[in-house]
Amino acid sequence: MEATTTERRKFTGEQLAEILAKHKKWRRGEADGARADLADAYLAGANLAGANLAGAYLADANLADANLADAYLAGANLARADLAGAYLAGANLAGADLADAYLAGAYLADANLADAYLAGANLAGADLAGADLAGAYLADATNVPVGVEKNDPPEPYVRRVDGAARAAYAQRYRERHPEVPVVERLDARILEAIEATPASFNMGVWHSECGTMHCRAGHAVLQAGDAGRELERQHGTRAAAAMIYRASTGRTPHFFASNEHALEDIRACAAAQTAASTPEPGQVP
Q1: Per the domain annotation, does 227 fall within a domain?
Q2: Same domain (yes/no): 179, 269
Q3: pLDDT in tens, 206-229
Q4: pLDDT tens across 70-97, in order?
Q5: Separation CA 281–CA 244 (nearest Å)
Q6: For the whole prediction, is pTM greater than 0.85?
Q7: Which residues in 128-155 are b (16+ Cβ under 10 Å) and which e?
């Protein structure tokens, strides 16, 4: 992807302020609120420092050289957006969709990119010093800075987000994406399937040709049933699995971990999910 000068939607300062105000109301669930739709918007050089655009729709927007310092963009859709040279220091992009985004030269120091979806993104010259990339999805991303690994890292499952925050994110994601199936106790169910047929688990394939072997993403799609397979048909296995995981657990696991690391994490997550679903003594289940 390259920066483009294609004609885009333009907004006056007053119009943009109104969009942000309505978006804030939408976030609060107020009747007169509206999700910010800035798809294809021309916002190059705009000052959006500290703006709350969580969950906003910014696909294909031109944000080149925009000031987004400390902006709240968690869960925002920035797919294919042009963010060349944008200043995103301290921005919260947790869980944001940045698929195929153009981030060449973007300043992302100390940004929160936990669980962000960066598949196919161009990170040429991007400054990611101190950025939180826990669980970030970088498959097929290009020009990834040295030190930001796409393969199985030594400690792939160090999580900085607590369970309550993940649950809140999952709930928001479900509200924004009602078409994505929710699988309760997703990792526990995947673990049950693996333990029933150990040979069915292989992180080296999405699905084997014979249909009897699946990686973690493939198992997630299967657990979602017909709705999961339809999502896979539309978006591919890894994207569909990432969406199912976000809606079901509030996070996206590392789909390129080794069998050992992946199974270790599946077991840990399954134990936590089972414990959370088990009533305390005296509680009604």
Answers
A1: yes
A2: yes
A3: 999 999 999 999 999 999 999 999
A4: 888 988 999 999 999 999 988 889 888 8
A5: 32
A6: no
A7: beebbbbbbbbeebeebeeebeeeebee
